[in-house]
Design a protein that fits this description.
Structural class: alpha/beta
Order of helices and strands: EHEHEHEHEHEHEHHEEEEEEEEEHHE
Distance between the termini: 38 Å
Radius of gyration: 21 Å
Strand order of the largest sheet: 16-15-14-13-7-12-11-8-17
Strand content: 25-35%
CATH architecture of one domain: 2-Layer Sandwich
């Protein structure tokens, strides 16, 4: 078995930075069974892939992703493009026999996601989707506690992902264009909490109802430059004279049912003032409950209903103890907290484990798994459009 994995990164921007950091950091903190080689980054000429490669440690730079994914030296193609390009790049990589990792949501459309999952099945190679919040130690611990039966049968799920960055001053970057993104807060944020609750509960969503979406800002100033390294960074200034139509949602809310009988509510918004990155859930079971908020990502709250009633209460667990909490032993001494970027590095480690034939620390989503989340996104869209419940069995 080869001792290295040569990685090609397709795309730059915000996610390009996070993935580049992960591939560079993973051999410094973990002992992966196969070592990553940061072979080549590909981007548009105006993005200056050469400068990006130099800053982030890639050995080569390219503006021709179609040739790059066929390169015999490449083992893994990592896709961080805007959503509409996920399917074309991933399918080309799979056709070339490459393993492929892809940012979320897996595609901008259900059709694209279905085709990606089918292509992966036919290619018989490993695929991965960067639902990185699974790799937060607190979320991974929640998954383990539910699997161990510590909270009993799950009855209620409440999940939110609230941000407030998308004010009127933000230009019409690709995230506000349906042709490029597929959807707004639905695919950008709700996809994360759908995947996260599926992962933690171990159950699938069977029905969506009561969905509503809203676009508060109908038009935005057109950007004058390329996307930069932040969520809403256009790489230039907004044009005061030229405006464009926003074609995605700013906020989405919906109800759902899980297999096994649990009921759920979901809410995602990019203009929830005062919420910087509130990504979290509360899961109530017959024996206890769990609560997580990414703004306090090193904590998981646990309510043990089996304890004496006199001492029952929400207990904050500082999920920073190596050996007891997933991934932590690779990082810092106990109670020396980790941050956003560490989830990506943990993900890179698990990808390398799987490529070496080992199991990940906790389950890692492949294209087929991510397609199930995409089916839920489609059900929400249909429910909001038609104002009716949608069973997942109707969404193929």
């Amino acid at each position: 078995m080869a001792k290295t994995v040569s990685v090609a990164l397709i795309g730059q921007g915000f996610m390009g930075r996070t993935h580049s950091n992960a591939w560079g950091q993973v051999p410094k903190f973990f002992k992966p069974p196969r070592m990553p080689v940061m072979h080549t980054v590909a981007g548009l000429p105006e993005e200056d892939p050469g400068a990006f490669a130099k800053q982030w440690g890639w050995q080569n730079a390219s503006t021709d992703w179609k040739s790059l994914v066929k390169c015999e030296e490449i083992d893994l193609v990592d896709v961080v493009t805007p959503n509409y390009m996920h399917a074309p790049v991933a399918e080309a990589a799979l056709a070339a026999g490459k393993s492929c990792s892809c940012e979320k949501p897996i595609s901008s459309t259900l059709k694209g996601a279905r085709e990606m999952a089918q292509a992966a099945k036919q290619a018989k190679v490993k695929t991965f989707v960067w639902y990185n919040y699974r790799r937060c130690p607190a979320v991974a611990l929640a998954h383990q506690l539910v699997k161990q039966g510590r909270i009993g049968k799950v009855r209620h799920v409440r999940a939110v992902y609230l941000q407030d960055w998308a004010g009127e001053s933000v230009p019409l970057v690709w995230r506000f264009d349906k042709k490029l993104a597929g959807s707004g807060s639905l695919g950008d944020l709700a996809a994360h909490i759908i995947d996260m609750t599926r992962f933690v509960t171990g159950a699938e969503i069977t029905e969506v109802s009561g969905a509503i979406t809203e676009t508060f800002i109908k038009q935005r100033a057109l950007p004058t430059g390329m996307a930069g390294g932040k969520i809403a960074d256009s790489g230039g200034k907004a044009s005061a004279a030229k405006m464009g139509k926003v074609t995605v949602d700013d906020a989405v809310l919906f109800l759902a049912r899980f297999a096994g009988g649990a009921v759920a509510s979901f809410e995602a918004a990019r203009q929830a003032t005062g919420n910087q990155n509130r990504n979290g859930f509360e899961i109530n079971g017959t024996k206890g409950s769990l609560r997580f908020n990414f703004e306090r990502m090193n904590e998981l709250e646990f309510y043990d209903a089996a304890a004496d009633r006199a001492v029952q209460g929400w207990a904050p667990i500082m999920v920073t103890h190596g050996g007891d909490h997933p991934y932590v032993d690779a990082w810092w001494p106990d109670a020396h907290i980790i941050g956003y970027e560490h989830g990506f590095t943990n993900m890179a480690y698990d990808i390398l484990r799987v490529l070496a034939g080992q199991k990940p620390i906790v389950p890692i989503p492949d294209f087929q798994d991510a397609y199930q989340t995409q089916r839920v996104l489609e059900a929400v869209s249909l429910s909001a459009k038609n104002r009716c419940p949608i069973k997942l069995s109707e969404v193929k």
